[in-house]
């Protein structure tokens, strides 16, 4: 056992001598106002939202075109579902249509604001484009952004009920602004054959670092110009965050292909440049030479190129700065990686998760006598087979979110404030196992405590579980380092009253503040938690890393989303602050390939969402009300 005590089975009792007067406190009129001010002041310290980009592709979709009508032309519609009861879904947009392809690689990406603790689910509906009549559904799936971020390579796959597998990739969105680009080809080498001409289109790709190796990632595809070796493509716009991560000197690959109605496109040539190189070519008028296997295959002229919306120092936009460029840019740099001690605005939580960071969880539960006799209905630990108590609800909601970032989902469950053999234990193991599997395992371990012979006692002491979790956090990080990975630990403490010795608790937090650890404390019940103010003041002291956060359950008991947001929104900043303080950069993004991605064998049920897809607008006309309260989660 982590704490050195593993209780044997017997019935739980309450020690009447150590009952706290908190049992008699039912209404504290100023608690809500006080807690609101504390949490608002901490939340306002930093912007806790992270901007990420979502891209998708599919494999082996079912052909729904119909007999003798060829192969389906799939496109996807992305809808952001409501994160709280009554919130309406919002369509983010749709991908391009890919003709005659049942394994489409869409290049259109979608920007999403993600905040830890707030549900962020996207519905992906795939359709076969029908020129005359209604588009045909090819399948759908629902993805939670946090769960995708926590998977290897930030990639998740689901089988669809109508056939095929849908893949979602989430990556950090870097940089701002848009590149507006118009290009044309000159004397492209024909690859079509003697009696016809090629149908050229172009693709833009960025160079990305996956597990220490550089590879090209396709991010934009133009329209096809039919039967033309001197094509002039329509003006295109692409976000810089998608194309180059905001670094205008980052490598960009321009590739030209001949479209084939059946089979894969045929390469016609390519060249490497950068956004600055494209801007410079507009001024100079020089053509880029296409090559294929080292031989020239034509030229590409940049008719116009400009960057808009990218802020520079002093408020100057990149569009203004680009006007002074008069010659082609130098060779593009390698993909930018910040220094090991990044300044503000360097690494963020998504960088560390993308590099393989695992979030470990330790759960600690208050079994002091002030919780009341668990055999009596209405007490905090009473186990009602028809409904969860507040401890169970907090476990389900909070551990349910954190489990998205832990691949093995093995959790120690600790207790404190109870007597075993006449001795008060301030840290003991709950259940027969040192670690349990998933949310349901934590809930089972919690229930098993009440047949383990404990006597609910007191006082309320956090220090031993904090020290135990800190030691485990440091050990876990060292083990992760030995295999080239990283880990960070969150201690979730649930208590029905204020700590008996705030000063000793503060000293303990100070002693472990240099550990890879965050401490989340949830106050359950109607006690006066005003003395817990020191937890919110702790991180404001010079030299102390902010590792603690206190939230009162009753303030959010009607909405699991509000609870998880209040308890977890500071975790990403605390994770980054630890690794930055110790000059530890994130690992290289993990390699991903369709063959190595774990696919849920359970076919995804069809989403209750009705879409009206028009030429200029997509509207949700029905469904989308399937919000699931995290208090009832058991995953």
Automatic annotation (TrEMBL):
Residues 33-158, 162-288 form the C2 domain. One of its GO terms (biological process) is cellular response to calcium ion. SUPFAM superfamilies: C2 domain (Calcium/lipid-binding domain, CaLB), vWA-like. Gene3D superfamilies: C2 domain, von Willebrand factor, type A domain. Keywords: Repeat. Residues 360-575 form the VWFA domain. Belongs to the copine family. This is C2 domain-containing protein.
């Amino acid at each position: 056992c982590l704490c050195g005590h593993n209780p044997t089975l017997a019935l739980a009792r309450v020690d009447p001598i150590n009952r706290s007067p908190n049992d008699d406190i039912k209404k504290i009129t100023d608690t809500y106002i006080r807690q609101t001010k504390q949490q608002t002041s901490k939340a306002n310290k930093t912007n806790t939202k992270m901007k990420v980009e979502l891209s998708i592709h599919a494999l082996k979709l079912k052909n729904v075109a119909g007999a003798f009508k060829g192969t389906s032309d799939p496109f996807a519609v992305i809808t952001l579902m409501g994160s709280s009861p009554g919130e309406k879904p919002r369509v983010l947009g749709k991908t391009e249509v890919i003709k005659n392809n049942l394994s489409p690689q869409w290049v259109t990406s979608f920007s999403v604001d993600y905040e830890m603790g707030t549900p962020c689910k996207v519905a992906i509906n795939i359709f076969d484009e029908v020129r005359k009549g209604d588009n045909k559904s090819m399948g759908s799936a629902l993805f939670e952004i946090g769960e995708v971020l926590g998977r290897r390579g930030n990639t998740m796959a689901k089988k669809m009920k109508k056939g095929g597998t849908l893949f979602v990739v989430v990556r950090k969105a870097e940089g701002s602004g848009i590149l507006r680009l118009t290009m044309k080809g000159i004397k492209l080498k024909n690859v079509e054959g003697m009696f016809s001409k090629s149908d050229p289109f172009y693709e833009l790709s960025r160079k990305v670092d996956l597990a220490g190796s550089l590879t090209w990632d396709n991010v934009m595809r133009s329209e096809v110009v039919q039967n033309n070796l001197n094509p002039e493509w329509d003006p295109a716009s692409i976000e810089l965050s998608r194309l180059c991560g905001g670094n205008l000197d980052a490598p960009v690959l321009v590739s030209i292909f001949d479209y084939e109605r059946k089979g894969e496109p045929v390469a016609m040539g390519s060249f490497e440049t950068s956004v600055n190189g494209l801007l410079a070519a507009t001024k100079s008028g020089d053509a880029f030479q296409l090559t294929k296997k080292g031989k020239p295959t034509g030229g590409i002229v940049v008719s116009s190129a400009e960057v808009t919306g990218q802020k520079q120092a002093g408020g100057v936009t990149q569009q203004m700065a680009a006007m002074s460029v008069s010659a082609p840019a130098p060779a593009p740099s390698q993909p930018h990686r910040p220094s090991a001690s990044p300044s503000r605005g360097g690494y963020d939580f998504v960088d560390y998760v993308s590099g393989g960071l695992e979030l470990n969880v330790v759960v600690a539960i208050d079994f002091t006598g002030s919780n009341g006799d668990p055999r009596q209905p209405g007490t905090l630990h009473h186990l009602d087979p028809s409904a969860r108590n507040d401890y169970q609800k907090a476990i389900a909601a909070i551990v349910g979110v954190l489990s998205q970032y832990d691949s093995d989902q093995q959790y120690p469950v600790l207790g404190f404030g109870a007597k075993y053999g006449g001795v008060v234990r301030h840290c003991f193991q709950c259940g027969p196992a040192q670690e349990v599997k998933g949310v349901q395992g934590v809930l089972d371990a919690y229930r098993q405590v009440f047949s383990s012979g404990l006597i609910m006692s007191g006082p309320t002491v956090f220090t031993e579980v904090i020290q135990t979790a800190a030691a485990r956090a440091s050990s876990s990080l060292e083990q992760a380092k030995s295999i080239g990975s990283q880990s960070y630990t969150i201690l979730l403490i649930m208590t029905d009253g204020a700590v008996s010795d705030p000063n000793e608790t503060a000293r303990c937090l100070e002693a472990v503040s240099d550990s890879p650890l965050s401490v989340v404390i949830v106050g359950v019940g109607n006690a006066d938690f005003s003395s817990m103010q020191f937890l919110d003041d702790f991180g404001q002291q010079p030299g102390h890393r902010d590792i603690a956060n206190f939230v009162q359950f009753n303030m959010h008991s009607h909405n699991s989303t509000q609870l998880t947001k209040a308890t977890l929104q500071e975790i990403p900043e605390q994770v980054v602050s630890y690794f930055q303080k110790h000059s530890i950069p994130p690992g290289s993004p993990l390699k991903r390939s369709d063959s190595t991605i774990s696919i849920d064998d359970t076919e995804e049920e069809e989403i209750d969402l009705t879409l009206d897809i028009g030429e200029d607008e997509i509207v949700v006309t029905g469904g989308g009300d399937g919000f699931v309260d995290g208090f009832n989660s058991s995953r």
